[in-house]
Amino acid sequence: MDRKQIREDEYYRDCTLCPRNCHISRLDGKVGYCRAGAEITAARAALHHWEEPCISGRKGSGTVFFSGCSLGCVYCQNYDISRNLAGKIITTDRLAEIFLELQEQKAHNINLVTPGHYVPSIIKAIGRAKEGGLHIPVVYNSSGYESVETVKMLEGVVDIYLPDFKYYGQEMAYRYSGCRDYFEAASQALEEMVRQTGEAVFEEEIMRKGVIVRHLLLPGGLADSKKIIKYLYETYKDTIYISIMNQYTPLEQVKEYPEINRKVTEKEYEALVDYALELGVENGFIQEGETASESFIPAFDYRGI
């Protein structure tokens, strides 16, 4: 696919960019599940130091937080932008400039956060930025709920995939994210991501190419989480890195879901980490200490936009 010839209107006129396949015309002001229109909307672009060490490094990851989300988890820590759609409309040219500005700030990479519903526009922006001298890796940081066809569009554009893998069973996926096909969609998308990147490549402890799969342990979700870790390791072994996270933060909107209106206990998290070690997982990341904190939630104040 010629990246320069991508026409956003072809994708936004009858949108099937994510597995929900809304088939709505975003060009006509209609919005689907992601709530995003046809114009790029973003809420923050800045150096971020709270990703995995091989992504943030010492200088930070150049994160761009996009507004809207095709998954819409009830417990999302970025709820203001994912569901309330806080953000500022920008052009493709401005997005290309932002990428170059982050590179000038010495970012280790460009980190696209929840970008799936803007992929055609992002591909064009990256192409323009590369014409202007962009040379650092591009990270695709997503919920994992992706269309395989959309991921295929990113081949040769994205260097590092950083997807979540949230659910194994349908019950949790439907209750917290309104979809029963999460595992099916995420597993197929991940397979394509791994096909594109192969085994990880590092340069001075900074990842240049590869896949890191994140899994956030939810309160009471240990059994489901174990199934996910087992699936990931048995399917991909050491080809991918697995990041096991305990930073779940119960925000205001989860009061309607009392079973997850608490932090993950130390015992729950240790049990999941121990299980991963027993399976043989070596390429991975864990979080230590008290990480469930709103400090992980940046200010969506249009900085850098």
TrEMBL record:
<dbReference type="GO" id="GO:0016829">
    <property type="term" value="F:lyase activity"/>
</dbReference>
<feature type="binding site">
    <location>
        <position position="76"/>
    </location>
    <ligand>
        <name>[4Fe-4S] cluster</name>
    </ligand>
</feature>
<feature type="binding site">
    <location>
        <position position="69"/>
    </location>
    <ligand>
        <name>[4Fe-4S] cluster</name>
    </ligand>
</feature>
<dbReference type="InterPro" id="IPR040085">
    <property type="entry name" value="MJ0674-like"/>
</dbReference>
<dbReference type="GO" id="GO:0051539">
    <property type="term" value="F:4 iron, 4 sulfur cluster binding"/>
</dbReference>
<dbReference type="InterPro" id="IPR001989">
    <property type="entry name" value="Radical_activat_CS"/>
</dbReference>
<keyword id="KW-0479">Metal-binding</keyword>
<keyword id="KW-0949">S-adenosyl-L-methionine</keyword>
<dbReference type="InterPro" id="IPR058240">
    <property type="entry name" value="rSAM_sf"/>
</dbReference>
<keyword id="KW-0411">Iron-sulfur</keyword>
<dbReference type="GO" id="GO:0016491">
    <property type="term" value="F:oxidoreductase activity"/>
</dbReference>
<feature type="binding site">
    <location>
        <position position="73"/>
    </location>
    <ligand>
        <name>[4Fe-4S] cluster</name>
    </ligand>
</feature>
<keyword id="KW-0408">Iron</keyword>
<keyword id="KW-0004">4Fe-4S</keyword>
<protein>
    <submittedName>
        <fullName>Putative pyruvate formate lyase activating enzyme</fullName>
    </submittedName>
</protein>
<dbReference type="InterPro" id="IPR007197">
    <property type="entry name" value="rSAM"/>
</dbReference>
<dbReference type="InterPro" id="IPR013785">
    <property type="entry name" value="Aldolase_TIM"/>
</dbReference>
<dbReference type="GO" id="GO:0046872">
    <property type="term" value="F:metal ion binding"/>
</dbReference>
<keyword id="KW-0560">Oxidoreductase</keyword>
<comment type="similarity">
    <text>Belongs to the organic radical-activating enzymes family.</text>
</comment>
<keyword id="KW-0670">Pyruvate</keyword>
<keyword id="KW-0456">Lyase</keyword>
<dbReference type="Pfam" id="PF13353">
    <property type="entry name" value="Fer4_12"/>
</dbReference>
<dbReference type="InterPro" id="IPR016431">
    <property type="entry name" value="Pyrv-formate_lyase-activ_prd"/>
</dbReference>
